[in-house]
Amino acid sequence: MLTKRVIPCLDVDAGRVVKGVRFQNLRDAGDPAELAAQYERQGADEIVLLDVSATNEGRRARRDVVAKVREAIAIPLTVGGGIRDVESAREVLEAGADKVSVNTAAVEFPEMLREMHDHFGAQCVVLALDAARVDGGWEVMTHSGTKRTGLRAAEWAKQAEELGAGEILLTSWDRDGTRSGYDLDLISNVRAQVRLPIIASGGAAGPEHMIEAYRAGADAVLAASIFHDGDYSVEDIKRAMQSSGLEVRL
User: Fold this and answer.
1) Least confident range of 15-19, 70-74, 166-170
2) What pTM does this model have?
3) Contact indicator for 89, 118 with CB cutoff of 8 Å
């Protein structure tokens, strides 16, 4: 049985970690390198760093922030935000990322996923899929949740898998920052269409939500505010998961 991963997320704006609700009303949560190192000490399996303003500002992810986080940790690091082509992906990989996460650019230029797969390998390509409930299903959102695309989430996930993505970071826009639990129906819906590992994101308030996400089909869980606010440590989450019968790395 593969161990279940717990992944703290660092949403970064202007070089600082921020957190909001549904990607809005951002508040300062600390220094990204310091927080990443803290979470690694607590037992985090990976770190995801998302430059949340890069796409809307038309720029690439800040290499200096990526490099500082890389210097602070040894665990895998995924970086997203402003990744628009193979070259911008290469920049953050050279700065220290192990994987790159793409959302808006992949929707606008799907063949980009194939190109990144061919250059870097599937293990390096993470599709960030932000989805909002609509008409009994889920619609893909881009530009940090500000634009609707008309794409159905599960269909887009399946297409991305065929194009060469190696993992899906699946975020419920409706649940982001709300602490109301992951959207289990969304996870199950996408799980039924793809074989790729799914990282569940959006809405975690504690270990019970994470355990539910795994049972709905997730392979990893991502959270931000519960760690940033000190409600739980990564170790707290993992011990609760272990007690429920899930395999984790302690």
Assistant:
1) 15-19
2) 0.93
3) no
Residues 5-243, CATH architecture: Alpha-Beta Barrel (3.20)
Annotated catalytic residue 229: no
The length of the chain in residues reads: 250
Residue from 11, 45, 51, 174 carrying the catalytic annotation = 11
Tell me if residue 11 is catalytic.
yes
Instruction: Say if residues 169 and 222 touch (Cβ distance below 8 Å).
Output: yes
Annotated catalytic residue within 51, 130, 183, 219? 130
At residue 58, the pLDDT reads 64
Q: Do β-strands 24-30 and 16-21 pair in parallel, antiparallel, or remain unpaired?
A: antiparallel
pLDDT in tens, 114-139: 999 999 999 999 999 999 999 889 99
Evaluate whether 224 touches 8 at the Cβ level (below 8 Å). Answer: yes
Of 197, 234, 233, residue with least CA distance to 218: 197
What lies within 8 Å, CB to CB, of 79 at 6+ separation is 48, 49, 50, 51, 61, 66, 92, 95, 97, 99, 100, 101
Main-chain phi, psi angles of 119, to 5 degrees: -80, -40
- pLDDT tens for 138-163 read 999 998 778 999 999 999 999 999 99
